[in-house]
Amino acid sequence: MINNPVNLYVVIPCYNEEAVLPETAKRMIQLFKRMREQSLIDSLSRIVFVDDGSKDKTWELIRDLSYEYDEIYGIKLAANAGHQNALFAGLMTVKNSCECVVSIDADLQDDIEAIPEMVKKYSEGCDVVYGVRSSRETDTFFKRTTAQVFYKLMSGLGVKMVYNHADYRLMSERALNALSEFKEVNLFLRGIVPLVGYKSDTVYYNRAERFAGKSKYPLKRMISFALNAITSFSITPIRIISALGGIACIIAIIMAIYTLIQKFTGHTDSGWASIMMSLWFIGGVQLVSIGLIGEYIGKMYKEVKERPRYIIEEVRF
Predict the structure, then answer these.
(1) I need a surface site. Which of 58, 194, 226, 282 has the fewest CB within 10 A?
(2) Average pLDDT estimate for 83-107
């Protein structure tokens, strides 16, 4: 039982969410009302929508909702900065205005009824509470399989992540202040937050279908997201390339010895097909390797420029 109500902010990044936003605001207002009645949160708790440079009427809806409800605040970014940067913008803007913050997407797939349990765990001393999906039954076979491969791959590369956790989590004020010390431009919060440390726990929930609108993560963006995650947190792929290079050199030496033996014993064949296959294979490996190394160099290029992650155009508090 919570003795003192918690000052809670909920940060919700939005990009072209006009179809779902009214329902999201409605459900969040109802949840806040119930939580206040249960003395889980205080009257100064707020819902903060972050418009990530939407091209539809998302910001107009947020602004109207902020006029209608005292609980709703709005942050408008000057341009589309990407989901991770929009979320980070909201977290950094409110981190010193409340005791803890819950981040959640606007599409209503993550169960908002898990928030009271997160607040209870915070009151028990947890600085970070992860919202973790109990299953992936609502996903297609392709998405479920690729997600499992992604988490196992990240684990195999040595990246500390919470399995089946996205960006639905609670963080205390001191955890957010620690998060602000991470200066990298290439944000992957699922990998960064576990590095913060502090006491953590998990809350399990069932993920629903998207209420309205279209998914913001088609296959192309999912691949880009996975590549960014891997190259932001692990140098293992570079080491794999080095190992492949060493193996290729050993194979080349063996083949050279074999070729010389065949030549001196008079068993030389034309070998055109095998030579061409070898050239294509080695060339392909080289191009992939150069491209992967280029990803790392590109990230360093972005980091050293130290451009701002986001620019806030307007705030409705």
Answers:
(1) 282
(2) 91
